[in-house]
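== Sequence, structure tokens ==
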Amino acid sequence: GGGGGGGGGGRGVSGNVIEKKRSARAQRRELRESRITKSVRQEIFEVPEEGMAVSDLATELAVDPTEIVKVLFLNGKMATVNQIIDAESVTLVAEEYGVEVLEKESEDKVVKVTFEGDEDVTEGEQEARPPVVAIMGHVDHGKTSLLDRLRKSQVAEGEAGGITQSIGAYSINVNSSWITFLDTPGHEAFSAMRARGASVTDIAVLVVAADDGVKPQTKEALQQAQAAGVPIIVAVTKMDVSGAQVERVKQELSQINLLPEEWGGETVVVPLSSKTGEGVDQLLDSIVLLSEVYEYKGVSDVPARGTILEANMDKSCGPIASCIVQAGSLKIGDVVAAGTGYGKVKSMTDASGESRDEVKPSFAVQMIGLNNVPSAGDAFQVVEDEQTAREMAEKALDKERKARLSEQSSGSFMSFGSFDGFEGTENDLKVQNIILRAGASGSLEAVKGSLRELPQEKVLLRYLLSATGDITQSDVDLASTSDAQIVGFDVTPSEEVLAHAKQLGVKIYSSDIIYNLIEDVESTMVSLLEDVVVLDQVGEAEVLAVFGSNNSKVAGCKVTDGVVQNTSRVQVMRKKCQVYEGDVTSLRIVKEDVSEVVEGSECGIGCAPYEDWKAGDKIVVFSVSRKKATLD
């Protein structure tokens, strides 16, 4: 009896525990619902540049956090309720609920600057400065060849695939007048870098090939130049090539609101050949003339500020930043804050390789002395002391870290069944982990932008790491443990890294031509998808009788249309309803196995394990083929 009583007491305790748990769960649910009903949805709210937590967004929108997760997932983004999502994702969700989002103004001390329009910049004695000219246009229209002709160097031949893949600046002396040229990349993946070029530009030279005319990237480059509000000169290149039609190019230019001067418009159009040099002097004269009309001026006697054009990590020198000074004079020994980097300027080198002690507005140099690699497009400025510079760099680093965490977790695995009412399985979306390395920060941004354009409804790209610098053995170890692939742009893996990767079975895709790299990643994403089964109707048959025992029944049929093969798939229709779909497992005429039965012939069809045949059933016959899946 004591044992029974003990057992009953145990069951009673167990029941009490369950009741307590149920009660606590109900209380939590009521509390959650009361929070939702008490909170009022904001009609408009601000989102910080680094984004906000899903839970905070749920509070602003007065919905359950799992609803936010659902909306994100249905828009191809994966997140958890405790995750920080970027500002773009916040805006996306808010729009679903009809709420307007404002981006919070940055509190950073570093600001993007222009030559004029900044109070600090305009204080001081104004003096003439060289114009900054961007060469813009479509891929392969001769921008690099034109710059080569201008700077009398043959760097062009070393460009991968004939495409400039790193933004640079070069100053040229033309009849005692200096001109600084920015070289903006031409491939469509580098539109962000072209836009950066336009933001520091005074004059845009739009390059159009005489044998190819106006192309989509030509129009894009034009829009960026117009947005920057700078005068535009059109250089019609490749005049030496057979098939050059300058009049056709002028006609096309007039259609995009660039009416040539000789046609009564205001656009200077200069036909030229970079190969022969014809027309190049006329282009330089046009630039000098424009600069005299606009009288570009700057102030030299203020702390320097400007823009980072490109930056990379050098094995022997450390971080190297290519920058253009937009105001003030940059000197050796100045303390500089630039994005996530800061430090004292140790050395400066111009485009011709000569050392410089001081750089005035509109001139570009490579600067050494920063402790970290800034991003292309970051503003830089000279500050009073290293403490101030360090604080500014740490703030930028913290913001970058938050953005990186948000990006990395945007492809995080999650249990789709973790919220109610969601229809879907974990197999609906596959994830490809990526470790991305690039030779320079501008290139890194451009490659990521191009990869972002790949369809990701079926396979989601998830960055475990994206950084500048060489591919390391640590990258290979990370790829091995997380089933990731390593993608390297304009970086060459060492023999040791390649050997380590081979040993661990890690794939490394490395190229200095962006087209090839994107194709490699796309083919890897496609390889995760199963082949698509394609069914083509090839015949029909009617069941006349059913033969066989309980364990093995076949349909005695007559082929009424087309053909039946022993590799066919069939659908069994009964009174216009499909009752079965499967593959043919046996096909016989009398007792002989055959591979094919044509229209008008009778045969026996078996589809094991299906046995529920009925006389009068209609069999629709399909051929089965497979094709590679696509990301679309």
